[in-house]
Design brief:
7 helices
Length: 161
């Protein structure tokens, strides 16, 4: 099963990286838009479904919930790790990208807050950077999201067999 998760996790990670690279070369600001990130989750969901189906085929019989969960979750973890390695590397190598992200963050703060809270938030952006700790926090959030998706998919797809 680990080979299945690696195969589909790398597939989803590579698809996500290529998706982001397409936007990067088209328009860097678009690459950083939230809808691009959210839409890329589709690659992980598809890979998770494929991993559950492959696990079932490999077992040759019905699979338990925990087998489906394991296949889907490991797929999601591998895909997210692959993507966030890419994201870290691209953020470290392109200062313009970090500058665009900072501006988008400032624009977001200005549209949702005001007064003293806005002032505090803007001050927090003075030393804006996308370091390893930021990437690891984002990775952790994505892994939690992958676990929730894996739970849902495992519950739904294991019943089909």
């Amino acid at each position: 099963m680990k080979n299945i998760a690696v195969k589909y996790g790398l597939f989803a990670g590579l698809a996500t990286i290529l998706y982001f690279l397409g936007f990067y070369y088209w328009d860097k600001a678009v690459m950083l838009e939230p809808w691009v990130s959210w839409s890329s989750v589709l690659f992980i969901v598809v890979a998770m479904v494929m991993a559950i189906h492959a696990t079932r085929r490999q077992a040759g019989q019905k699979i338990e919930f925990r087998q489906a969960l394991r296949a889907a979750f490991l797929t999601g973890v591998i895909a997210n790790v692959a993507f966030y390695v890419f994201y870290y590397l691209i953020m470290q190598s392109d200062a313009e990208l970090v500058s665009i992200l900072k501006q988008q963050t400032m624009d977001f703060y200005q549209s949702w807050t005001s007064g003293e809270q806005l002032e505090t938030m803007m001050k927090s952006l003075e030393d804006f950077k996308v370091g390893l700790s930021t990437i690891l926090l984002s990775l952790a959030r994505s892994i939690i999201g992958s676990f929730i998706l894996a739970l849902l998919l495992a519950a739904i797809l294991r019943r089909q067999y």
